[in-house]
């Protein structure tokens, strides 16, 4: 189906990697979704952050990052796929790659509310009340470790 994703820790990213990652996130979150908060949050270049993505000649086609928060729990976020690559299972493949590597541990995320059932199909469960982030309704979710 899909080739293996690129997987790099934040401290391993090249300038070209960072540019591509920020470009896909800018296109999806700032332009398409008109998020009202800055995307760059100080986590991307940390050695405790891991970036996973698929790419074509124009850069990342689908992307997510995962990191261990200050609470010691792994988080998944910034899941984004370029519009022309949606519906191909790329985000699903990235999420499965996260579960293959870190599925023994609890994983948490803030899902955009309309994606709650999609994340539930991967074993995530709601773990709190809805909240607003970047002007978009989100749902806190967790996936227990296996």
TrEMBL record:
InterPro entries xref list: Acyl_CoA_acyltransferase (IPR016181), GNAT_dom (IPR000182)
PROSITE patterns linked: GNAT
Keyword Heme: no
SUPFAM superfamilies the UniProt entry points to: Acyl-CoA N-acyltransferases (Nat)
GO MF term list: acyltransferase activity, transferring groups other than amino-acyl groups
Keywords of the record: Transferase
A Pfam family reported for this protein in Swiss-Prot or TrEMBL: Acetyltransf_10
Ranges where the N-acetyltransferase domain occurs: 8-146
Coiled coil start-end: none
Entry keyword annotation includes Plastid: no
Name of protein: GNAT family N-acetyltransferase
Organism: Aeromicrobium phragmitis
């Amino acid at each position: 189906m899909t080739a293996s994703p690129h997987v790099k820790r934040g401290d391993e990213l090249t300038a070209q990697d960072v540019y591509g990652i920020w470009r896909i996130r800018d296109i999806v979150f700032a332009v398409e979704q008109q998020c009202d908060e800055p995307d760059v949050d100080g986590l991307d270049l940390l050695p405790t952050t891991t970036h996973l993505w698929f790419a074509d000649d124009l850069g990342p086609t689908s992307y997510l990052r995962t990191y261990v928060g200050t609470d010691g729990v792994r988080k998944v976020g910034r899941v984004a796929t370029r519009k022309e690559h949606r519906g191909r299972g790329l985000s699903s493949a990235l999420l499965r790659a996260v579960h293959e590597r870190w599925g023994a541990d609890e994983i948490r995320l803030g899902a955009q509310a309309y994606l709650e059932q999609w994340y539930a199909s991967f074993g995530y469960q709601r773990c709190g009340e809805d909240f607003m982030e970047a002007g978009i309704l989100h749902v806190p979710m967790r996936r227990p470790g296996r």
